[in-house]
Design brief:
Blueprint (H helix, E strand, L loop, with lengths): L2 H11 L7 H10 L3 E7 L5 H9 L15 E5 L2 E5 L6 H14 L2 E7 L6 H10 L6 E6 L9 H11 L7 E4 L2 H6 L14 H19 L7 H25 L5 H10 L1 H12 L16 H7 L4 H26 L4 H24 L1
Parallel strand pairs: 1-3, 1-4, 4-5, 5-6
Antiparallel strand pairs: 2-3
Amino acid sequence: METSAALRAAIRHCEGQCDPAPLLGALSLLTEPWTVAVVGRVGVGKSTLVSAWSGIPRPIGLGGVTRVLEVVETDGMRLLDTPGIDDADAALLGLEQVVADADGVVWVTDGLQPWTATERDLAALILVPGRPLWIVVSRVDVVPPDEVPAVLERVTTLSRPLRPRAVVPVDLRGALREGRGAPRLEPQIPGPRRIAAAREALRAVRAELDRKPPPSSPEEVAAIWAAEVRDAIREIELGVLSGAIAHPTEALAALGGRAPEVLTAVEQACAPFPPPELPRPASPSEPLGRQLLGRLAGIAGATRAVKSEGARWLLEGELAIREAWPGAEELARAVDARSRLVASLDAVEATL
């Protein structure tokens, strides 16, 4: 799946769960044309290269003709024809942001003065690590043929720290004159800049989800209910064994005293959805409690009362959750929606 398609799917799954704005921003950036900044010294052939790529005639001439940044759209690419570098400090101010916002950089260097110290210093300052870079060596048509390999070797060696995709010799005027075009660039889609934006969007959405604990499934609610009730039963049994509880009436009352804590745990597991209507243990004053207590006495009776009423309480609660809870389907849908959203975010990550 392409990144843009994965982002669209994730945005759909955000509905009702989180703010899709970060993903929408990443998608908007992703669908923009692939942007290439064409950079180089004055008069090296940047505008000629842009003309050859776009097929759109542009002013060309000695001494440089581009005084301000010009944008040319062609074949899904946006070419940024930048003013020539004639002053390193001024170029640093003018090019740093342009290069930072581009998906890739084509640096045009003059075959007669290849990859000068000024170019090397400026490139080290403005190029973004990991951003695709191509170096075009222009005017090789006026370099003696036997010197061309040495020129290319110089550029390749001196630019190695920048890890360019390629060092390409080009007779730009000949290519333009003969209609051969310029060497083709293979855009890296989505490209480091857009990958970084998509990853930042994913981090923002995941952080929002982390602040909203996922809803518990009906099965998890049933498991929480069972664990809480069993804990309550064990606690009362320990009280009987320790002698703190010596009578069945006390045991039954103590079990009822744990009911609010058990019900609160289930309510928290269901939030923000309505919890099921759950039973409470019978109290000693209720008919069911009196009927149970009428057959029991002493410590043994206290243990029997806790086990018997605890088992009934547990079973009736499980039946209420599994068979008589109107909100179970809504909760299950919420759990499924959350799972689908998380899976869609993982799918976006897998494309980057």
